[in-house]
Design brief:
- The chain is α+β, with helices and mostly antiparallel strands.
- The chain contains 15 helices and 16 strands.
- The strands form three sheets. An eight-stranded mixed β-sheet has the order 1-5-6-11-10-9-7-8. Strands 13-12-14-15-16 form a five-stranded mixed β-sheet, with helices on both faces.
- Strand 9 and strand 10 form a beta hairpin.
- Helix 1 runs antiparallel to helix 6 and helix 6 packs across helix 10.
- The chain is elongated and about 90 Å long.
- 36% of the residues are buried.
- The structure holds histidyl-adenosine monophosphate (HAM).
- Histidyl-adenosine monophosphate binds next to strand 6, strand 10, strand 11 and helix 11.
- The site of histidyl-adenosine monophosphate has 25 residues, from strand 6, strand 10, strand 11 and helix 11.
């Protein structure tokens, strides 16, 4: 878990500013859900046998309740939706930006606290909506300055396909049982799809020899994917079909995708998404959405030397300098009125003229606004341009105008 400080924090602010602008153009409202949820919100949606639930959640007990730090955003949004009436959820479009927590082995690109920018769209299932949401995600990445990302597209099939896919994969994997890792031998009976996600080299080699899950799906699921692909073609969006992409969460059905970034090393999944179904509170809800890992976005921008383009230019700073206690006191009042007029200003807590000028320099001030007894008596200030060293006296009522020029 790490702190995000200036100047990097300005890149983060830039990412959020651009995201909010684009997301509102697509009709999304922000939803801020708590960081702490009941553990069951995730076990019932992400799935008991996924790595996220079995190995990565921060779970704790308080007042006899099993709570956890949210490992992702989708389930919390759907928990919120389940508490609303159909009128409020039909067609709802929500986005979120915030920290998520997974207790994974830390390494480059993998944090225990990381941040996602995600969306969830609760419109009725349609390949058109899936394509629109994927197009939104690609637009966001481009607007942030990321090109060179690869979209991998697949289908998890309809709910009805799940048993056939599991049976088919189990049959194909059974002859390799002895060569699978211990986890995967367990997954064979528990949740065979998770074998396709195993990071173990030996298991990966076996997975490459398997027939893709689509081979065991009905025509309806393959047709749904073909329609999504056709919409993406019409939108001119490049993607690669990757039939073995399953994603690490169990709530998906039909369309799933992952976006790979460049310059990121092993942890190159910059974003993931798809269509899902879950029941968190008596009402089954379906939606489609995605989440983008912001640490990885920042890392990729830094590797491409594009991070600075997202930073807003720092405002021009005026530093108030007072000679003597009375001038410092009056400067506090002047500083507040300048701020009210939109000027960015600061002053030191005290000290000599020299030390105050040093502080102004260190802060990168554009101007020093200097007042002593003389200036106070005449209601003027000496304004020094820190770049040129040029100094002029100005009446107080002209100060704000001069400092905003
Ligand atoms: P996910 O693929 O688990 O999907 O996470 C989305 C993104 O979060 C990843 O592609 C990655 O960039 C970032 N990420 C995940 N774990 C870490 C980590 N430990 N450190 C840094 N970055 C990380 C979801 O979370 C789904 N809720 C996405 C979704 C929304 N599907 C439908 N709606």
């Amino acid at each position: 878990m790490s702190d995000i400080a200036a100047p990097e924090v300005r890149v983060w602010q830039g990412l959020e500013r651009v995201a909010r602008e684009i997301l509102s153009r697509y009709g999304f409202d922000e939803l801020r859900t708590p960081v702490v949820e009941f553990e069951s919100v995730f076990t019932r949606s992400i799935g008991e046998t996924t790595d996220v639930v079995q190995k990565e959640m921060y779970v704790f007990e308080k007042g006899g309740r099993r709570l956890c730090l949210r490992p992702e955003g989708t389930a919390g949004v759907m928990r919120h939706a389940a508490g609303l009436g159909a009128q409020e959820t039909d067609g709802a479009r929500w986005f979120y930006v915030g920290p998520m927590f997974r207790s994974e082995r830390p390494q480059a690109g993998r944090r225990r606290q990381f941040h996602q920018c995600g969306v969830e769209c609760l419109e009725p299932p349609s390949p058109r909506v899936d394509a629109e949401i994927l197009a939104l995600q690609v637009e966001l990445l481009k607007a942030w300055g990321l090109d060179g990302c690869t979209v991998k597209l697949a289908t998890r099939g309809s709910g009805g396909d799940a048993a056939r896919v599991a049976e088919g994969l189990r049959g194909a994997l059974e002859p390799h049982r002895e060569s699978l890792c211990e986890d995967c031998r367990r997954r064979l009976s528990e949740n065979v799809l998770r074998v396709l996600d195993c990071k173990n080299d030996g298991c990966r080699r076996i997975v490459e020899t398997l027939p893709p899950p689509t081979d065991f799906m009905g025509g309806e699921s393959r047709d749904y994917l073909a329609q999504v692909a056709a919409h993406l073609d019409a939108l001119g969006l490049a993607y690669r079909l990757d039939p073995r992409l399953v994603r690490g969460l169990d709530y998906y059905e039909h369309t799933v995708w992952e976006i790979e970034g460049a310059h990121l090393g092993a942890q190159n999944a910059i974003a993931g998404g798809g269509r899902y179904r879950m029941n968190l509170g008596g009402r089954e809800l379906t939606g489609v959405g995605f989440a983008i890992g912001l640490e990885r976005v920042v890392a990729m921008l830094q590797a491409m030397e594009r991070d600075a383009t997202l930073m807003a230019a720092p405002p021009r700073l005026a530093w108030l300098v007072g000679l003597g206690e009375e001038a410092m006191n009056q400067n506090l009042v002047l500083m507040q009125s300048l701020r009210a007029a939109g000027i960015v200003c600061r002053m030191a807590a005290g000290g000599s003229l020299k030390s105050q000028m040093r502080a102004a320099n260190k802060a990168g001030a554009a101007w020093a606004v200097i007042r002593g007894d003389d200036e106070l008596a005449q209601a003027v200030a000496a304004v020094k341009d820190m770049a040129t060293g040029e100094q002029r006296r100005l009446p107080l009522d002209q100060l704000a105008g001069a400092l905003s020029a």
